[in-house]
């Protein structure tokens, strides 16, 4: 199996407010983002990144054993072959390399893999 490398752009912080701390070497990439914009936030659920958890292919949705087992690709479980998380969040404000966003359920310290603008025409397919 071919492997590839992801480089964290920063980390999620939860200190009364939720914000993204972008590492200084990626600061220029923030140009064009503004307060009120919606973005797609791609994270690496590092606490779910173990060899055992990566082998898990079925889970009980929402971690509730009352829910029947389902394939991880049909769930939002953080336990999956590649523990990638995708959120759609609103930028509350930007202060330097900190992007304050609406609340998410990621842990403090979660690595940021990428940020992309939310584009209604692309992210909300017609006919759904």
The CATH class assignment of the largest domain is Mainly Beta
CATH homologous superfamily grouping of the largest domain: YaeB-like
Overall tally of structural domains: 2
Helical run tally:
2
Query: SSE order in H/E notation?
Result: EEEHEEEEEH
Question: pLDDT average, as an integer?
Answer: 93
CATH topology of the largest domain: Elongation Factor Tu (Ef-tu), domain 3
CATH architecture of the largest domain: Beta Barrel
Family: Belongs to the tRNA methyltransferase O family.
Pfam family, one: TrmO_N
InterPro entries: TrmO-like_N, UPF0066_cons_site, YaeB-like, YaeB-like_sf, YaeB_N_sf
Keywords: S-adenosyl-L-methionine
Can you give me a brief rundown of this structure?
This protein has 2 helices and 8 strands, in the order E-E-E-H-E-E-E-E-E-H.
Task: Describe what this molecule looks like in 3D.
The structure is a single chain. The chain is mostly beta strands and 128 residues long. The protein has two domains: 7-44 and 85-119, Elongation Factor Tu (Ef-tu), domain 3 (Beta Barrel); 46-82, no CATH class. The chain has helices spanning 51-54, 120-123, and strands at 10-14, 18-22, 38-44, 58-59, 70-71, 84-95, 98-101, 111-117. Strands 1-2-7-6-3-8 form a six-stranded antiparallel barrel. A hairpin with a 3-residue loop joins strand 1 and strand 2 (18-22). The chain is globular. It comes from Thermococcus litoralis (strain ATCC 51850 / DSM 5473 / JCM 8560 / NS-C). It holds the Pfam family TrmO_N.
């Amino acid at each position: 199996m071919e492997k590839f490398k992801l480089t964290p752009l920063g980390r999620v912080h939860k200190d009364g407010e939720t914000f993204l701390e972008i590492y200084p070497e990626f600061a220029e990439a923030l140009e064009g983002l503004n307060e009120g914009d919606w973005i797609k936030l791609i994270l690496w659920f590092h606490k779910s990144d173990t060899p055992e958890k990566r082998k898990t292919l079925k889970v009980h949705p929402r971690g509730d054993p009352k829910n029947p087992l389902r394939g991880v690709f049909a769930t939002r479980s953080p336990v999956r072959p590649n523990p990638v998380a995708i959120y759609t969040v609103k930028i509350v404000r930007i202060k330097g390399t900190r992007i304050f966003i609406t609340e998410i359920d990621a842990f403090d310290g979660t690595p940021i893999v990428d940020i992309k603008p939310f584009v209604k025409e692309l992210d909300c397919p017609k006919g759904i």
